[in-house]
Amino acid sequence: MCCDCDCEFRPLGFLLGLPFAFLCILLSIIGVFIWIVGLLLTCICPCCLCVTIVVELAIELIKAPLHVMKWFTSKIPC
Questions:
Q1: Which of 8, 16, 44, 56 has the most Cβ atoms closer than 10 angstroms to its Cβ?
Q2: Residues 27, 57: contact at Cβ < 8 Å?
Q3: How would residue 15 be classed by pLDDT, with cut points 50, 70 and 90?
Q4: Average pLDDT value over all residues in the chain
Q5: Angle at 5 between CA 20 and CA 21, to 5 degrees
Q6: Which residues, 6+ apart, have CB-to-CB distance to 60 below 8 Å?
Q7: Phi and psi at residue 8, to the nearest 5°
Q8: pTM score > 0.70 for this model?
Q9: What does residue 4 show for φ and ψ, rounded to 5 degrees?
Q10: 16-53 pLDDT per residue, tens
């Protein structure tokens, strides 16, 4: 299905994913804010399980641009 290249770099998928990656960067900035607030709340009351779940969600928001770019580049053939 693929040509003789090893298909690690897919420029078309990278270019198509850029607008979504910029949107995800905004989400990751929001995630950083939520993460900082969640960590402060966890330090104040470590027994709150819901704050820990929110902090984990914030970490996933921070990682979102990388997930989006990997997904877009994997969908585009060589």
A1: 16
A2: no
A3: confident
A4: 74
A5: 10
A6: 31
A7: -80, -30
A8: no
A9: -75, -5
A10: 777 877 887 788 788 888 888 888 887 877 676 777 77
d(CA 20, CA 35): 22
Distance CA 47, CA 54 (A): 14
Element (H, E) at 78: none
Supply the DSSP symbol for 26.
H
Domain boundaries, the chain: 26-75
Q: Which two tokens stand for residue 61?
A: 């928001």
Cβ contact 58:35 at 8 Å: yes
Rounded Cα gap, residues 29 and 10, in angstroms = 27
pLDDT at position 30: 84
Find out whether 4 and 56 touch, Cβ atoms under 8 Å: no
